Amino acid sequence: MSSSPYILILFYSRHGSIAEMAKHIARGVNKVTGIEAKIRQVPDVSSTAEATSPALPDEGAPYCTLDELSECTGLALGSPSYFGSMAAPLKHFIDQTSTLWMTGQLIDKPACGFTSASTMHGGQEQCLHSMMTPLIHHGMVWLGLPYKNKELISTTSGGTPYGASHLASSTQENNLTTEEKALCEAQGERIAKMAVKLNS
Ligand SMILES: Cc1cc2nc3c(=O)[nH]c(=O)nc-3n(C[C@H](O)[C@H](O)[C@H](O)COP(=O)(O)O)c2cc1C
Predict the structure, then answer these.
(1) In what residue span(s) does the Flavodoxin-like domain sit (predicted)?
(2) Which ipTM score applies to this complex?
């Protein structure tokens, strides 16, 4: 078991939006005493089965190990919306977690999701649901974002009650709006508080 409890912020990001969101979620986690954020990513997958990733990524967070997942106190899972679903590299990583499922390592731990899409109605909520499904199988407790976060009402871009999101339009690129940043932070803070409560 790791020395101090942590929320694992685990994501796949090809063009940086999700990586940017992860930083804001970490900010929210780190507002809560007694728990910290650990940011990890998953490697890309290749259509050529023999191709492998280098042991360390060229940039960004280290790749996640299964031990880092099994030892987390809570999980924030992030993926771009690809055709209304999580991206294949993240699904590929999750599909390697059957030993954790068999031993119940993630049961009763809080989980949440965050996503980014390039169109307003291009499947953000559906993608968040696709991330929720395997985590429910793992026995995790899914957390959305309650409407006490007023940015859910005022946003004109990303942000859903199912989880934080970002509208990555060509003009905004990876720059999150004020509302999107606030909702990422709120989500990080909420999962950290719930993880501390569930472990007290
Ligand atoms: C294969 C693929 C499928 C995509 N499907 C959708 C989609 O269904 N709806 C949408 O709005 N954007 C879609 N996008 C755009 C990405 O979701 C968007 O650019 C996202 O912000 C990328 O996140 P990243 O910057 O972290 O890589 C797709 C992009 C790719 C490469």
Answers:
(1) 7-192
(2) 0.99
Closest-CA residue, ligand 1 atom 19, reads 118
Domain 6-198: homologous superfamily in CATH: Flavodoxin domain (3.40.50.360)
Q: For residues 191 and 199, what is the distance between their CA atoms, to the nearest angstrom? A: 12
- In the chain the beta strands, taken as DSSP E runs, fall at 6-11, 36-41, 74-80, 110-117, 141-142, 164-167
Domain spans of the chain, in order of start: 6-198
The pocket around ligand 1, CB under 6 angstroms, is made up of 13-18, 80-84, 116-119, 122-123, 168
Q: What is the pLDDT of residues 137-157, one digit of tens each?
A: 999 999 999 999 999 999 999
- Residue 31, helix vs strand vs coil: coil
Q: Give the per-residue SS3 of 109-131.
A: CEEEEEEEECCCCCCHHHHHHHH
Give tens-digit pLDDT for 93-132.
999 999 999 999 999 999 999 999 999 999 999 999 999 9
CA 18 to ligand 1 center in whole angstroms:
10
